[in-house]
Model the fold of this input.
Amino acid sequence: MIKTCRIARIFAQKDNPEAVKLRQLLCRLVVHYHFIEVNNEEDAQRYFKRPLSELKLPVVHLPCGTKLVQPTESDVLDHVGFINKPKYSEYDLAIYGAGPAGLSAAVHAGFEGLKVILIEKKTIGGQASTSPLIENYLGFPNGISGKELAERARQQVVNLGVEISFLQEGLKAEFKDGKGYGYLQDGTKISARANLCACGVEYRRLNLPDEDRFFNAGIFYGAGASESPFCKNEHVCIVGGGNGAGQSALNFANYASKVTLIVRGSDLSQTLSTHLVEQVKNHPKIQVLYDTVVSKLSGGKWLKEIEVTHSKTGQKKKIQTKHLFVCIGGIPHTEYFNDTSVIRDSLGYVVTGPDLFQNGTLPSHWPLKRQPFFLEGSVPGLFAAGDVRHNSIKRCASAVGEGAMAIALILRYLSENPAH
Ligand SMILES: Cc1cc2nc3c(=O)[nH]c(=O)nc-3n(C[C@H](O)[C@H](O)[C@H](O)COP(=O)(O)OP(=O)(O)OC[C@H]3O[C@@H](n4cnc5c(N)ncnc54)[C@H](O)[C@@H]3O)c2cc1C
Done:
């Protein structure tokens, strides 16, 4: 069993650029750490009992006892339960994406004794790791931070013997001879009997200065249903003209004193379903600003005001609001299926199970007599779970649930296709 490290310590000068890289790495790995400044002779004596000139900083201490001197990223990865090179030439299952869906799938697959590799390109915990407080996750009555949930899941995954290949992206997929192959950015080729795409989505952003600063401090991405009770008697602004934005406006109108829908186009009927257009237009609390974009954000620690610009006249206007919901869609991470026959919807989400039927017929390239399992894509043995899946519910618990369910279906698939 691999030993996991809970709290690391980085010793370095305050502005040591290598230490900055290591800090960012540990942060994305959701490994807790303390940063200890070693700026002068006094610090050098206190922590190392040696002159500053003799020290090779940064030094990283891991609670499992390992001390690393001027480590590279991959030295650190080696010691916190991640792998540099895959151990096996073939896996039972390769999981792409270590958000809630991928982590949950990894836990269940590890628990079932499968030979599994989990590949993550950026952040353990995915989108959820950016949430300061998840309040709708079962078993945490006071909520839990996304980072802590991710850290707990990471430890559980490692303890169950799953290999995690971190800072590796699946760039290209290939399916042949009943197996799936993933080509990673460092040239590694992963071969697996079953594959799970749990790559999630990235919400489109406004790309404005200060957008990061107000993230979850006035700016929210997606329809924000869980935020609605906190917007009682407030003026809520929503960016977007699609169904997500329209439904969100109607939902917020139940709580807010006023809802302003900020739409880039001149008409809602192009982007919004007919029944919603009428409801939105006729709602006494909803105002629609057409041909309008958000051009500036301001406030202190929390958003206070936005500036909007009319794209045809250039006229600017300020709106006092503490709640701006950006509903301009998400981009699913499925480009690596580009040269495959994996069916995706018009937005790029992976289509699975019953949704693969068109007018009662399965795609012509589906080769089996049986129907695709509920989370199986249009290629046997390729499954999708979580936000990346067409028509999925974009929630942490749903992603975790789908990750677990995917493993039950993958076990059925593997038993139909035993290893030779
Ligand atoms: C700020 C914020 C707050 C939220 N708050 C809540 C909340 O309070 N409650 C709630 O229920 N939901 C919340 N959500 C939604 C919830 O986080 C998502 O529904 C959930 O994270 C989806 O999980 P996932 O595993 O499907 O995808 P993701 O979380 O998107 O994870 C996908 C992972 O795959 C990785 N990846 C992508 N492409 C590749 C590739 N090619 N190779 C390798 N890795 C790849 C990504 O880096 C990412 O880590 C919030 C979302 C955000 C953004």
Summary: The helical segments are 17-28, 41-48, 73-79, 100-111, 146-159, 243-252, 274-282, 396-416.
